[in-house]
Amino acid sequence: MEECLQNNDRYLIEACINKDLAAWSVLVNKYSGLIYVSVENRLKKYGLDASSHDIEDIKQNIFSDIWTNGKLSHIVNRDDISYWIAILSGNAAIEHFRSREARLLNNAVSLSHTIDDKELGEIFPSGIPGPNDELARAEMEESLELAIESLPASEKLIIKLYLIHGKKYHQIAEFLSLPTSTVSSHIKRAKEKLKEALKDNMRGEI
Questions:
Q1: Are 150 and 162 spatial neighbours (Cβ–Cβ below 8 Å)?
Q2: What are phi and psi of 46, to 5 degrees?
Q3: How far apart are CA 16 and CA 24, in angstroms?
Q4: 183 and 176 in contact (C-beta within 8 Å)?
Q5: CATH architecture, range 2-99
Q6: How many CB atoms lie within 10 A of CB 147?
Q7: Which sequence spans correspond to the domains of the chain?
Q8: What residues have CB less than 8 Å from 46, skipping those under 6 apart?
Q9: Contacts of 35 (CB under 8 A, 6+ apart)
Q10: 203: left (phi over 0), alpha (psi -120 to 50) or beta
Q11: Is the overall model pTM greater than 0.70, yes or no?
Q12: What is the pLDDT of residue 126?
């Protein structure tokens, strides 16, 4: 019985669809490694960092989704489901990180965040305050954060991915399923808005 489940995916799937716990245990043991590698490879492809704990969490969510939502019943080719498992796992990995967008929007911008050692500095009208000028740096960070929060949601997320998380244009494009040209336009537009907001803030302090 177990040998048949192990060697015959069609038989294994049918048993799992019927909620056979022994068959489910075989499926989990058989495909855990493939799911882990598929998740890890997809995240690396998009330049997303994840610990082994994160990947294990994603893997468990995948198994839970398959079992709870009866996804095995939708498989057409049941003779070998390794390709289906790999695609499902890769997509689940990206969806997991997309679900963190709300948290990304709540991350604060710090003057310590740099891109190529100078990209962040380009936003500021008169440069970044020195490391010993803590008050000026705190005021600049607050002004920058307020300016970012005033951006449209799409620009806000993209500029934070760019500035805070150090993602390249193509990585943001793949992550958000957008053309690279669109990401570039959003970043350019957001930078201009931030420059103007900070200039207005500085004029208001004079």
A1: no
A2: -95, 10
A3: 5
A4: yes
A5: Orthogonal Bundle (1.10)
A6: 21
A7: 2-99, 102-205
A8: 94, 171, 174, 175
A9: 59, 62, 63, 85, 89
A10: alpha
A11: no
A12: 53
Hey, what amino acid is at 167? Answer: K
pLDDT, residue 131, reads 52
Q: What phi and psi values does residue 141 have, to the nearest 5 degrees?
A: -65, -40
User: Cα separation of 65 and 185, whole Å?
Assistant: 37
Q: Which fold has domain 102-205?
A: Arc Repressor Mutant, subunit A (1.10.10)
Amino acid at 197: A
Tokens of 169: 């244009």
pLDDT per 10-residue tile (average), the chain, 206 residues: 72 91 91 95 80 88 90 89 94 80 55 49 53 62 77 81 80 82 90 76 52
Using an 8 Å Cβ cutoff, are 16 and 78 in contact? no
Structural contact between residues 28 and 52, judged by C-beta atoms closer than 8 angstroms? no
Q: How far is CA 3 from CA 9, 16, 22, 25, 148, in A?
A: 11, 15, 12, 13, 59
List, in order, residues 6 or more apart from 55 with CB less than 8 Å away: 36, 39, 40, 43
State whether the Cα torsion 157-172-99-177 is positive or negative.
positive
